[in-house]
Amino acid sequence: MHKVQLIIKLLLQLGIIIVITYIGTEIQKIFHLPLAGSIVGLFLFYLLLQFKIVPL
């Protein structure tokens, strides 16, 4: 892969992680969960990996 393609792929992956963490934070706020939003986001990311929605 070219250097530009690698950078784009890295930025896309980072963007996916940021969006999932943001969604976890919003879920935590809506449901007033006693966990940090980032932990909810990590759990959500784990579920997405387990169900193969997000490829490893």
Structural summary, described in words:
The structure is a single chain. The model has no long low-confidence stretch (mean pLDDT 94). The protein has helices at residues 3-31, 37-50. It starts with a helix and ends in a 6-residue tail after the last helix. The radius of gyration is 14 Å and the shape is elongated. The chain has two helices and no strands. The longest helix is centred in the first third of the chain and has 29 residues, at 3-31. Helix 1 (3-31) crosses helix 2. It has one domain.
The count of helical stretches stands at 2
What does the overall shape look like?
Answer: elongated
Radius of gyration equals 14 Å
Strand count, sense and barrel status of the largest sheet are: none
Give the rounded overall mean pLDDT: 94
Total strands: the figure is 0
Number of domains: 1
Task: Provide the helix percentage.
Answer: over 70%
Which regions have little confidence, pLDDT < 50, spanning 5+ residues?
none
Order of helical and strand elements: HH
Structural class: mainly alpha
Sheet-strand content, in percent, reads under 5%
Distance between the termini: 19 Å
Quickly list its features.
2 helices; transmembrane helix; elongated; transmembrane; 56 residues
In short:
By secondary structure, the chain is mainly α. It has 2 helices and no strands.
